């Protein structure tokens, strides 16, 4: 079966299913080991597109133990409840016991300083049977056994067909003045094979954007970290049905205003059928995250193209009719602003044979807040070269040798240091190299410099000031 690597839940992850470590009925003997409990997280419902398209239900196992060693796990998949709607194909390694029932070997092994530990997996794929009617439903069960852990399974729901939304109308905005208001006139079409009973639309906004309007059928929240808002979001509900092929648009575009810290901003947008379990998950009351209903007028939808009537029941689980995801999109909203990054160095004195820690910093002087979604290509890095006559014996956590598995670079640099992908104005990254002095070289000088990418001499246009892009490490 397909497995993913062990993952730990983040502080902003969805609330974990309750896991217990009970001793069973009655009072256990003090020497009886307590078995960890591995629980299957609630399974997302899936909707089947017409054959030959396939769906592979994704499952997530969770355990609240820091140490798990279960190598004799047998998972049983009973998909007989899907016999009238889907063909079931089990993963290699599974043993078919009878039609649509199989046992699959598995293992839960992990050591972690934090909990919960999680394992993502899948055991089978589904294909809609030819002639299965849109709206037909079925279910399957997952159970398991092991001598080393207690396994609690669950049930998954499957339906034939579903609505599918395709977005349009969104556009990028470039180089707007601070304080400006921009509009995103979202439209979407039900390109699925079932109508929906309503729609949920959501927008997110990066730190330099604020929602202008707060509609009464929308809920709003801010993620806050260390006193900073690092994302706003709006979730709006529309109870009107969306027919197959129908296209609608927001009666008023969603409006955003650039704040004083705006720089390279983004809004992520999506539309889901109302009742989709993802909507409920989005509204989970996570730490630092409170939803509040807007107090303005109701935001409506206007029909752009009328859909076709059908006797097919409405669905809430989207079906993906193709290889791409069309119900979500990200657009860029950049502002005319700057963010001056600079570095500082330091000086120290140390005798031969001694070690010395040399500090340096990367500082965001603002005024903009930098948020990068490229994976690091849009943020400044720091390259540091130690003074001659020294060997690097340690570094701060953000700094690594510029070439992996090269003993010479590990000992003598240069090292690369990386900041976060979200950097507020005023942020100071305190970095260091720990050096052993092999030979005293009078006035030995190392260098700290900002690097903007692999092309020499190129720099990000949001930082027009090169004067503070380099500094010295002076030893003896």
Write the SSE topology.
Elements: E1 2-3, E2 7-8, E3 37-40, E4 46-48, E5 54-55, E6 59-63, E7 67-78, E8 86-90, E9 95-98, E10 101-111, E11 117-122, E12 124-128, E13 137-145, E14 150-152, E15 154-160, E16 165-168, E17 173-176, E18 181-184, E19 187-190, E20 199-205, E21 209-211, E22 218-225, E23 228-238, E24 247-250, E25 254-258, E26 264-273, H1 277-282, E27 292-293, E28 301-305, E29 328-335, E30 339-344, E31 346-348, E32 355-367, E33 370-371, E34 381-385, E35 390-395, E36 399-401, H2 407-412, E37 415-417, E38 422-423, E39 428-437, E40 444-451, E41 470-475
Parallel strand pairs: 3-14, 4-15, 17-29, 31-41
Antiparallel strand pairs: 1-11, 2-11, 3-6, 5-12, 6-11, 7-10, 7-13, 8-12, 9-10, 13-15, 16-19, 18-25, 19-24, 20-23, 20-26, 21-25, 22-23, 22-27, 24-28, 26-29, 30-32, 32-39, 33-38, 34-37, 34-40, 35-39, 36-37, 40-41
Keywords: Signal
Signal peptide: 1-30
Structure description:
With 476 residues, this protein is an all-beta fold. It folds into three domains: 2-26 and 33-160, Immunoglobulin-like, CATH 2.60.40.10; 165-335, Immunoglobulin-like, CATH 2.60.40; 339-475, Sandwich (Immunoglobulin-like). It has two helices and 41 strands. It has a seven-stranded mixed beta sheet, with no helix packed on it. A hairpin with a 2-residue loop joins strand 9 (95-98) and strand 10 (101-111). The radius of gyration is 28 Å and the shape is flat. 33% of the residues are buried.
């Amino acid at each position: 079966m397909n497995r993913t690597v062990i993952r730990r839940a983040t502080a902003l992850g969805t609330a974990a299913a309750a896991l217990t470590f009970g001793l069973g009925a009655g009072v256990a003997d003090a020497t009886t080991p307590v078995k960890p409990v591995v629980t299957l997280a609630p399974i997302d419902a899936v909707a089947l597109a017409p054959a030959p398209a396939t769906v592979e239900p994704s499952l997530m196992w969770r355990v609240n133990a820091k140490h798990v060693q279960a190598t004799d796990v047998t998972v049983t998949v009973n998909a007989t409840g899907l016999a009238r709607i889907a063909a079931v194909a089990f993963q290699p390694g599974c043993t078919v016991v009878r039609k649509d029932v199989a046992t699959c070997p598995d293992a839960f092994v992990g050591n972690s300083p934090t909990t919960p530990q999680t394992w993502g997996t899948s055991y089978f794929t589904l294909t809609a049977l030819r002639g299965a009617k849109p709206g037909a439903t079925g279910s399957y069960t997952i159970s398991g056994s092991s001598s080393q852990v207690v396994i609690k399974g669950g049930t998954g729901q499957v339906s034939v067909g579903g609505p599918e939304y395709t977005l349009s109308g969104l556009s990028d905005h470039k180089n707007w003045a601070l304080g400006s208001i921009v509009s995103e006139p979202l439209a979407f079409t039900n390109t699925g094979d079932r109508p929906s009973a309503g729609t949920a639309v959501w927008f997110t906004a990066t730190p330099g954007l604020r929602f202008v309007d707060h509609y009464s059928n929308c809920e709003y929240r801010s993620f806050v970290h260390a006193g900073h808002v690092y994302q706003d979001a709006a979730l709006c509900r529309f109870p009107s049905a969306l027919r197959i092929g129908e296209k609608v648009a927001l009666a008023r575009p969603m409006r955003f205003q650039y704040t004083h810290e705006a720089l390279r901003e983004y809004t992520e947008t999506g539309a889901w059928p109302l009742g989709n379990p993802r909507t409920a998950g989005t509204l989970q009351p996570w730490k630092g995250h409170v939803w509040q209903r807007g107090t303005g007028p109701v935001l409506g939808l206007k029909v752009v193209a009328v859909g076709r009537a059908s006797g097919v029941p409405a669905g809430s689980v989207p079906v993906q009719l193709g290889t791409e995801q069309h119900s979500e999109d990200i657009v860029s909203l950049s502002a005319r602003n700057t963010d001056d990054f600079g570095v500082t160095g330091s000086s120290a004195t140390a005798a031969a044979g001694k070690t010395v820690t040399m500090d340096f910093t990367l500082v965001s002087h603002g005024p903009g807040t930098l948020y990068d979604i490229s994976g690091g290509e849009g943020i400044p890095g720091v390259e540091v070269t130690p003074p001659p006559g020294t060997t690097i014996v340690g570094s701060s956590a953000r700094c690594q040798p510029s070439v992996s598995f090269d003993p010479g670079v590990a000992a003598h640099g240069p090292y690369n240091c990386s900041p976060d992908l979200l950097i507020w104005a005023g942020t100071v990254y305190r970095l260091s190299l720990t050096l052993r002095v092999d030979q005293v070289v009078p006035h030995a000088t190392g260098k700290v410099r900002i690097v903007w990418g692999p092309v020499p001499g190129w720099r990000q246009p949001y930082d027009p000031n090169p004067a503070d892009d380099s500094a010295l490490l002076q030893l003896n």
